[in-house]
Amino acid sequence: MSKRKCKFTEVLRAKYPCFTSGRDDFDAKCSICDCHVDVGNKCTIALERHVAKEKHKKNIRAAGSASKVTNFFQPSTSLTLKNAHAAEGTLAFHTTPETMVRINCFLC
Q1: Which residues, 6+ apart, have CB-to-CB distance to 30 below 8 Å?
Q2: Closest by alpha carbon to 29, among 46, 45, 41?
């Protein structure tokens, strides 16, 4: 029995792109299943076994058919859009009766 442990290296990362570095050098994290695979003892065999599991295959099918959230909600990076939101918030603050809002306006 060999005492050397296999490490998750750049070569393995290139061969198995769905895995990233895990908790230590002897661990790989599957980005699809969000689980950790110990590669210390069996190296590529452990990764191949994980890829062959039904859970991994099911998660790949689910990830391929799901839509991303960014398709529905676009991130607001426009400066004019942010200024418009700030103006709307200021207008709402100043039109609310003072009895409902008991804070000082630091924007004015």
Answers
A1: 18, 19, 36, 37, 50, 56
A2: 46
pTM for the complete prediction? 0.56
- The answer to whether position 93 is within a domain reads no
Q: How far, in whole angstroms, is CA 108 from its chain's centroid?
A: 39
**Total number of domains in the chain:** 1
Pairing of β 35-38 and β 19-21: unpaired
Using CA of residue 79, residue 85, residue 91, residue 97, what is the dihedral sign? negative
Enclosing domain of residue 57: 10-69
Rounded distance between C-alpha atoms, residue 106 and residue 108, angstroms: 6
pLDDT tens digits along 25-37: 889 999 888 899 9
